[in-house]
Recover the amino acids of this structure.
């Protein structure tokens, strides 16, 4: 077994791995160095929000932190409020409370059994995998460990192409929506443009609309469509999913897969049952797709899959619908071409290609504030994240060719030019290109268990 392990990252994925390692009763004590990067360990960006309007988009019964206790979160919240149902969509703040409580319990259990956990409230500056171990550098300190696991979560967002330096300099173009929600500006804008229409954009719109009741909003995306809503009640996965998966595996082609999905959906009362039935098979299906077909999916089908797969709670959907009915929210199809400071210096000017890409119909919008809410960034080849830049530049890890994290084995071992590392792993968002499904808690807890098994087996 690997007795000394570095866990790098401070969010839910790293917390799940820490808990798995400490709960297994290994034959020898472990030494764990947990580089949390600052902030509250376990909460990360996703669960640090204090707003009651920011809800989980997975029902409470499915959000347990550990693979062996999928209902752990539900048990936690029901101790305080027995009226909570497993089908409820709860505030992400409560999930952050649950993660903190589980980590505290895991640390206490670890101390009781002789394990040593050092919580390092800083980021690791560099990671150097070697034949007999891994060196982790922080400032002038070098810590040699038997193995290291990257559980970094979301990479830092970057401005979209076409955003000018002038737009960024004035502070009216917001690249990180969560920093805005934590510290909103004192002057309330009359018109806010939100770029993106995914789950993050939904959180931004509802929160800012509540804080600024006189502000109107325009939300822009290529197709102008919000994520689909969950049903108020749960729906069971389709019963004949094995036949659908077998047909998809027989011919890994995106166009054929879409045709098969449409045929399967036509036979069900609700399309959600078909989409949900594919979830356990998604990593295998993604692995079967050739690279050119993965690229085709990215270009043409990803947006439709994401809005059907990653659905919003019914109350969030109803809140956005009310904003539209009241005239405060307008959705618009288009693709961003350029953002620059307005001529008067008091706002921003956005130029958009319309959906049909007819340049002669270029549209112009003016806004007091523009918020970029386009979801997570997975592209390690272009990220400003210092540790990932070091790993990529030194060829310790290989970027996924489609910008979806790092190349890795399905078991989480990171790849380099010579093959796979035996002592350097990843879980969570960095495995997007390998597993596709890699950012939700039901998948992350399975990855945490799989990596913990490998670390403890050595």
């Amino acid at each position: 077994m690997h007795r000394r392990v570095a866990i790098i990252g401070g969010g839910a994925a790293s917390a799940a791995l820490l808990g798995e390692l400490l709960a297994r009763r290994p034959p020898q004590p472990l030494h764990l160095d947990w580089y949390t990067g600052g902030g509250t360990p376990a909460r990360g960006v996703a669960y640090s929000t204090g707003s009651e309007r920011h809800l989980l988009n997975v029902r409470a019964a499915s959000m347990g932190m550990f693979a062996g206790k999928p209902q752990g979160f539900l048990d936690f919240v029901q101790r305080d409020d027995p009226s909570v149902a497993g089908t409820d969509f709860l505030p992400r703040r409560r999930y952050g409370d649950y993660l903190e409580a589980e980590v505290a319990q895991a640390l206490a259990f670890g101390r009781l059994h002789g394990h040593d956990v050092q919580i390092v409230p800083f980021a690791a500056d560099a990671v150097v995998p070697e034949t007999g171990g891994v060196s982790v550098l922080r400032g002038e300190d070098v810590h040699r460990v038997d193995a290291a696991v990257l559980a970094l979560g979301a990479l830092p967002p970057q401005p979209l192409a076409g955003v000018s330096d002038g737009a960024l300099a004035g502070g009216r173009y917001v690249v990180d929506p969560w920093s805005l929600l934590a510290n909103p500006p004192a002057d309330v804008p009359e018109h806010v443009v939100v770029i993106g229409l995914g789950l993050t954009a939904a959180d931004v719109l509802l929160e800012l609309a509540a804080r600024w009741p006189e502000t109107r909003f325009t939300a822009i995306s290529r197709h102008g469509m919000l994520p689909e809503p969950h049903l108020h009640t749960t729906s069971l996965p389709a019963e004949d999913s094995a036949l659908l998966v077998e047909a998809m595996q027989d011919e890994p082609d995106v166009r054929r897969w879409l045709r098969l999905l449409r045929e399967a959906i036509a036979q069900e009362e609700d399309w959600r049952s078909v989409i949900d039935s594919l979830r356990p098979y998604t990593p295998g299906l993604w692995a079967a797709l050739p690279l050119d077909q993965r690229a085709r999916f990215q270009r043409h089908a990803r947006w439709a899959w994401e809005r059907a797969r990653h659905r919003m709670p019914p109350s969030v959907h109803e809140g956005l619908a009310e904003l539209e009915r009241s005239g405060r929210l307008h959705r618009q199809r288009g693709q961003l071409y350029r953002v620059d400071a307005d001529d008067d210096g008091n706002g921003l000017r956005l130029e958009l290609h319309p959906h049909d890409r007819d340049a002669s119909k270029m549209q112009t919008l003016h806004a007091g504030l523009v918020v970029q809410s386009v979801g997570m960034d997975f592209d390690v080849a272009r990220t400003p994240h210092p540790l990932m830049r070091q790993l990529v530049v030194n060829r310790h890890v290989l970027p996924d060719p489609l910008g979806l994290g790092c190349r890795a084995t399905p078991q989480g071992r990171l790849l380099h030019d010579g093959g796979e590392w035996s002592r350097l792993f990843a879980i969570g968002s960095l495995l997007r290109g390998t597993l596709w499904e890699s950012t939700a808690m039901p998948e992350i807890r399975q990855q945490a268990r799989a990596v913990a098994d490998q670390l403890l087996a050595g």
Remarks:
- The first helix runs from residue 12 to 23.
- The CA atoms of residues 4 and 145 lie 5 Å apart.
- The chain has 15 helices and 17 strands.
- The chain has a mean pLDDT of 94.
